[in-house]
Design a protein that fits this description.
about 375 residues; alpha/beta; seven-stranded mixed beta sheet; four-stranded mixed beta sheet
Length: about 375
């Protein structure tokens, strides 16, 4: 049997990982500034995370949600305290797409409505309704097409206000990433998020903060949406939540009431997933990783801004993007093969940095030296 060929891959096999570094099967070491799509939040194979999972494996790895699982309660309490949302309610699942599916479903249950507002360049997942609110036709099969989604320009306050003025009574939810990831590291304006909150309040709609990539401390706040100073009704989480162990969830404001069987999952919130997620929160707090994300992220943005060939350096914390001109189109490839540094991209010309929140300043300095060297080599090759 062959693998179903849907992933464009780099010709490298990673066999070992530690902190912000990975090693391939040839023994070569790479600096990982991508974290497997923003998944590695506390560093690869952190010893406390490994120990937590190993200890839990010795007890019980899985049972379904037909029994009490005290680890879920512990996780909810820790998450509420660290995120600053202690009165919210936690539903656990397995992936970011699943979290967004459930958030959209709960918004429709709560309001009795069907219409969803989403935004240009958005990405919310590749499954049914999650892909319907994703602004990329290449991901959307005919069965996913629906008239229930209204796409508006990102950060366009006038368009948002006009949409609510004309269709407000039919809108179930607004879903938005605090910082768009796949779309190219585009930061939602604080004023735009505040307007979403006020219009949702006025019209009885649900504000969904997709924090799958930009949440869990990556921006320097637990949820990047919270820079705006207002709360969402539902926050969705995944990626960094388990540091590579599959776990996801949504936290739901107290005014949205649950009913039995509205949501469900076989594997979500299993014992092993909760152990991994608890370890992540413990390390984020004990090692002050949100503060580190602010400090190292600022250093990277300042240094990148001083490189004249790079444009539009943007982001918050350790979620950073910048535009690469056409003459430097091989920069990402050269960083990987010449400098042994993993980075991400967003088509057509954006490099994305999504490292561990534990990235050390010396590793950031190494990256800056390396990118300057590769830019110099590419510029010289163009001149010659």
């Amino acid at each position: 049997m062959n693998l179903f060929d849907v992933y464009p891959i780099n010709d490298v096999t990673i066999v070992k990982a530690k902190g912000s570094y990975v090693w391939d099967d040839q023994g070569d070491q790479y600096l990982d500034l991508y974290g497997g799509h923003a998944v590695i939040s506390i560093g690869h194979t952190h010893p406390h995370w490994v120990q937590r999972i190993e200890d839990q494996l010795e007890k019980i790895a899985f049972y379904s949600n037909s029994i009490r699982i005290p680890l879920q309660v512990q996780l909810a309490e820790q998450l509420g305290r660290i995120s600053g949302k202690p009165d919210y309610q936690l539903f656990l699942c397995n992936s970011g797409a699943e979290a967004n599916e459930n958030a959209l479903k709960m918004a429709s249950f709560h309001t009795g409505r069907k219409k969803i507002i989403a935004f240009s360049k958005s990405f919310h997942g590749r499954t049914s309704l999650a892909v319907a609110v994703t602004d990329n036709p290449a991901y959307t099969a005919p069965v996913n097409e629906t008239d229930n989604v209204i796409f508006l320009p990102f950060n366009d306050e006038d368009a948002l206000a006009e949409c609510f003025a004309s269709d407000g009574d039919s809108i179930a939810a607004v879903i938005i990433e605090g910082i768009q990831g796949v779309g190219g590291i585009n930061v939602a304006d604080d004023s735009f998020l505040r307007l979403i909150r006020s219009l949702c309040d006025k019209h009885g709609a649900v504000y969904i903060a997709d924090s799958v990539q930009c949440g869990y401390g990556r921006s320097g706040k637990f949820f990047s949406h919270d820079f705006a100073g207002v709360n969402a009704d539902i926050y969705t989480m995944a990626k960094g939540m388990g540091n590579g162990f599959p776990v996801a969830g949504l936290i739901i404001a107290p005014h949205i009431k649950p009913k039995h069987f509205q949501l469900g999952t076989t594997f979500g919130g299993n014992h092993l997933a909760c152990a991994a997620a608890l370890a992540v929160l413990e390390i984020i707090e004990q090692e002050k990783l949100m503060g580190n994300a602010v400090m190292v992220g600022k250093y990277l943005r300042d240094e990148l801004s001083a490189i004249p060939q790079l444009k539009n350096i943007r982001g918050r914390g350790l979620m950073i993007g910048f535009d690469v001109p056409a003459e430097l189109k091989d920069l990402k490839k050269n960083l990987l093969w010449n400098q042994k540094i993993f980075t991400g991209e967003a088509k057509p010309n954006v490099i994305r940095l999504l490292p561990s929140l534990a990235l050390k300043k010396k590793d950031a300095e190494q990256f800056i030296d390396s990118i300057k060297e590769e830019i110099s080599n590419l510029v010289s090759a163009t001149v010659n």
